[in-house]
Amino acid sequence: MFKRLENLPTLQPGDKQRDLLWPITTLGGLALLLWQHTLGLIILIGQLLIDVIYLIRHPIYIPWREISANLYRTGAQALGITALVGFLIGIVISYLSSKQLQLFGADIFIINILGISIIRELGPMLAAILVAGRSGSSMTAQLGVMRVTQELDALTVMGISHSQRLILPKVLGLGIAMPLLVIWTSAIALLGGMVAAELQLGLNYQYFLTALPDSVPIANLWLGLGKGVVCGMVIALIACHFGLRIKPNTESLGEGTTSSVVTAITVVIIIDAIFAIIFSDVGLT
Amino acid sequence: MTNPECIIEIESLSTRFGNLVVHQDINLCVLRGELLTLIGGSGSGKTTLLRQMLGLEQPSQGSVKIFGSSRKDPGFNRQRKKIRSRSGVLFQQGALFSALSVFDNIALPLRELHTLSEEMIRDLVMIKLDMVAIGPEHANKMPAALSGGMIKRIALARALALDPELLFLDEPTAGLDPELSESFVELILALRSEMDLTIVMVTHDLDTLVALSDRIAVLADQQIIVTGTLDEVCNFQHPFTTSFFKSMRHKTDQKNYPEQIWKTVPMPL
């Protein structure tokens, strides 16, 4: 044993080359990665558009079952958590604002504050962020595991297109489910706000409900719904994009899921900002 | 020119991953009705070559023709569905869809045709399950509830669902115990005589190799160094083949000279 060790030549592990330009290469690598993601997303969107045209011409291939399954998984099963979060946020906002409003004796404006902020901003954003964390991660993980178990390859070999059978139903399903979830979240948040306003300010429920449509222009509701549709489809797209990029190993699976959720939430907030700028003169007067 | 006998024709194919050359100038022809086994050391690119035959990966150079049509031909996309339904694949881990039951897994390729009635599909699925010796009581189980051997059998049933002419097997007996793998080999032999299949197989298992192969292609040094029958490949002089078949020679030697073994075994006291 020792003799053998003695006779062994001293083996050096391959030298890791120290690159002096590492800040530039790292930066360049990041920029390239961003470019790759953008390119990948654009290709994915293009592929989906081609699929939609194909399905319109051949309606027999429309994956109804998958769409309804996604609707149930991303929509119906998210009702509980969105309701809970919406209700609590509604109570908190109503409680804090009514304290401030009481100082000025402007109690009645609680309806305006709650109505505008929840229907226009908070409802869609809460729903979108919850869905991005909940459904986005599950979509990415699902596609990733299908890659690991070679199910994606099996689909390709059977001549079933991934985009048509897996991605399009997810994007459409979430595009339909999100606006419905937005309405649900906004309604529950308003309910929470109404309860808190009654307790804090003694504002009558009936008065709250009748004054709400007068103080909130209907455009805000459409804006919230529009945000829901766009955010829903974008979340599904990003989740699927990251899911398809996952390499067949566990490390990549965890990494892909994390970056999918982080990206989805960031993009949702960016979309919200874009909406706020574009529609800055709609529904506020 | 396409040889009419060639179902798969690989012409001067090269594969590179970055600077790593995996295949260089590979030519291979899979004849109708034969069972070709692809062997080679780890990392020699067997699986990559199989994936290129399946169209899951693109070679860096060269072409793969299946049923006489290449990916580069115009009109290939139109033919793709037809080619898909003429070939079946058994993946190494089975790759059953974990969201679907056993029945739905086998029914999926049939449903994709959109021409069969639900009753017909049910009958066909039950026939395929029977072919791979899986009882009807397992039809409604989920893949997670099945043993490895059953998953392989069901994956084989799914690969055979459309009665393909061409079947790809990726390590069909890896991960099975000897008894199961023997019965799997018998199953493939039986199916082959029934269905007139052309089979391309990748395997490491010597017993499977000996029991099934008509021809063997050896992948080493980035090339197919030899193709031929078992004897031809066995006698081919190359470091890889000699070491690969060494253990098998032991076995055949032992079979041929049983009395010698008897002599070398110490006498029982």
What does this 3D model show about the protein?
The complex is a heterodimer of chains A (285) and B (269). By secondary structure, chain A is an all-alpha fold. Chain A has one domain (29-278). Helix content of chain A is 82%, strand content 0%. Chain A has 10 helices and no strands. In chain A, helix 3 (64-75) runs parallel beside helix 7 (162-201). The model of chain A has no long low-confidence stretch (mean pLDDT 89). In chain B, helix 3 packs across helix 4, helix 4 crosses helix 5 (148-159) and helix 6 (178-195) packs parallel to helix 7. Chain B is α/β, with parallel strands linked by helices and 269 residues long. Chain B has a domain at 6-92 and 166-263: Rossmann fold, CATH 3.40.50. At the A-B interface, helix 6 of A face helix 2 and helix 3 of B.
- CATH class group of the domain at 6-92 and 166-263 in chain B: Alpha Beta
Instruction: Work out the number of β strands of chain A.
Output: 0
- CATH homologous superfamily grouping of the domain at 6-92 and 166-263 in chain B: P-loop containing nucleotide triphosphate hydrolases
**Number of helices, where a helix is a run of at least 4 consecutive DSSP H or I residues of chain A:** 10
Distance between the termini of chain B: 70 Å
Unreliable sequence segments of chain A: none
Give the number of domains of chain A.
1
Largest sheet of chain A: none
Order of helices and strands of chain A: HHHHHHHHHH
Compressed to H and E, one letter per element, the order of chain B equals EEEHEEHEHHHEHEHEEHHHH
Strand-residue proportion of chain A: under 5%
Distance between the termini of chain A: 88 Å
Average pLDDT figure of chain B: 77
